[in-house]
Amino acid sequence: MDIKTKLKERLLEIPVSYNAFREKYRLASDLNVKPEEIEQLLNELCKRDILKEKIEYICPTCRESTVLYSQLIEMMTIEDNCFECEECGDLVNSIKDKTGYVFYSVNNRQDLINW
After folding, report:
1. Buried b / exposed e across 22-32, counting CB within 10 Å, b at 16+?
2. Which of 64, 83, 96, 101 minimizes the number of CB atoms within 10 Å of its CB?
3. Residue 67: CB partners within 8 Å, gap ≥ 6?
4. How far is CA 25 from CA 79, 90, 94, in A?
5. Residues ≥6 apart with Cβ < 8 Å to 43
6. Which candidate, 67, 64, 63, 58, places its Cα nearest to that of 23?
7. H/E stretch holding 42
8. Interior CA angle at 40 toward 111 and 33, to 5°?
């Protein structure tokens, strides 16, 4: 079975009524492939609005982690790619303060089935 089919099956395991997120490195591990091998497929699914992407950030001051939709970051940015930490109020840089964890949820199940 090819990587695309395995990835599709893994993402479709999420029940319709359940809004679960799959982490990129965990998906790669579950499929027994390198993250780079599925990254292009995940990006394609996000561009087609089949998946929603969330990225984890960590505040450099209080070390509190925040997971936000990519689209929400643009709306929350107040200056120089930064948004305010909800815990301490200091600025979190959306470029420098990424933890590396990226999460995905199914946005359009029928399109994923047809993909």
Report:
1. bebeebbeebe
2. 96
3. 54, 55, 56, 57, 101, 103
4. 30, 29, 20
5. none
6. 67
7. helix 35-47
8. 105
d(CA 18, CA 30): 20
Q: Give the residue carrying structure tokens 């995940």.
A: 42
One-letter amino acid at 73 equals I
User: How much is the pTM?
Assistant: 0.81
pLDDT confidence bin for 16, thresholds 50/70/90:
confident
pLDDT one-digit tens code per residue, 38-91: 999 999 999 999 999 999 999 999 999 999 998 888 888 988 899 999 999 999
